[in-house]
Amino acid sequence: MHSALVSPKPENPLARVTRLVAPELKRVEQRIAEQAAAFDPAIEGYISYALGSQGKRLRPLMALLGGGALGGVTPQHVDLAVIVELIHIATLVHDDIVDEAERRRSQPTVNARWGNTLSVLLGDCLFAHALNLSANFDNPEIGRSIAKAAREVCSGEIIQTQRRFDLHLAIEDYYRIIQMKTGSLFAVAGELAAVLHGADAATTQALKEFALRVGTAYQIYDDCLDIAGDENATGKTLGTDLRKGKLTLPVIMLLRAASASEKERCAEFIVQGNLAEITRLMKAAAANGALSAAIQAGQDLLQEAEDKLTCLPANQYSEALLGLGQGIGRLFEEVRA
User: Of 266, 271, 279, 269, nearest to 227 (Cα)?
Assistant: First the structure.
């Protein structure tokens, strides 16, 4: 008797995309690691720890692929990739303090190791360093755009904190928050990738709009993961949004779909930060597919993003930009499963 053949699991598009710019990404990683040496020796160890854990590097990918699609990846695109990732790492240091998260990328967070006071200052150092690096571009508008994006990220986080436990948070308000806190850094990576090649206004705007939608969709994915993910698989503390009263898209949709009595129960669980009950409700038939609806909203954004790329030259890098969106789409399917 022959054993049944098992089809190999299809490769995630993100892996293919990453391979295309592997040499440039390796340089980005080296450059990020080297940044610790720019700091006083007394704090160099803290900086190295914060910079040491590698994520998906989606923002650098956006900068590198955008540059490749419009004429090739230049050293300035590598500079841009390093800067946007440093800003992202700085925001993660601060986010983990706000969320009281203990693990990220399968290791203790900076605040779990050294406390909040040192972590706040460490995040500030990384922000300042990234903005200092952005001043090295010949075109001063590039540095200004990066600084503006950093401000948007921080403003989005402030507004989200301001609206904690706000059971009347509208979907439109949620989108505005995540476009600011996540989409804006993706958007500036895409926009400046085009600017560095002297692209025309229409192409630059198209790449910016693509990146904004991809970044916003990725935040929706992350918010779904926070509710329905597995901590062992993700390597980070989950449920922090709910425990801190941050209403995300799946929770907002759960509240919208609930009857008056169900809504009251949901509100009670949200105020209590009862992740187990919210997760149970999210997956129950009575939720009217709140989690699925949130996933679909993210996938719709990815489709909108794809439509923005029609004006780009047809080459392997523009194909890889499509693959970047498809890879995030695959992540949504994994949450749904």
Answer: 279
CA distance 219 to 297: 11
* CA dihedral angle for residue 173, residue 153, residue 222, residue 290, rounded to 10 degrees: 0
Place of tokens 């992350």: 222
* CATH number, domain with residue 47: 1.10.600.10
- Asked, for residue 76, whether it belongs to a domain, the answer is yes
User: What's the pTM value of the predicted model, to 2 decimals?
Assistant: 0.92
Q: Which residues of 75-112 are buried (b: 16+ CB within 10 A; e: fewer)?
A: ebbbbbbbbbbbbbbbbbbbbbbbbebebbeeeebbbb
6 domain-assigned: no
| Number of domains making up the chain | 1
Q: Which of the residue ranges 9-23, 226-240, 311-325 has the most confident prediction, judged by mean pLDDT?
A: 311-325
Cα-based torsion angle of the residue sequence 283, 284, 287, 293 in order, rounded to the nearest 10 degrees: 40
Is 92:132 a contact under the CB 8 Å cutoff? no
Query: What is the domain range of residue 224?
Result: 13-336
Contact (Cβ atoms closer than 8 angstroms) between residue 96 and residue 110 = yes
**Which string of DSSP letters, residue by residue, matches 39-72?**
S-HHHHHHHHHHHHS----HHHHHHHHHHHHTT-
Please state the rounded mean pLDDT for residues 14-24.
94
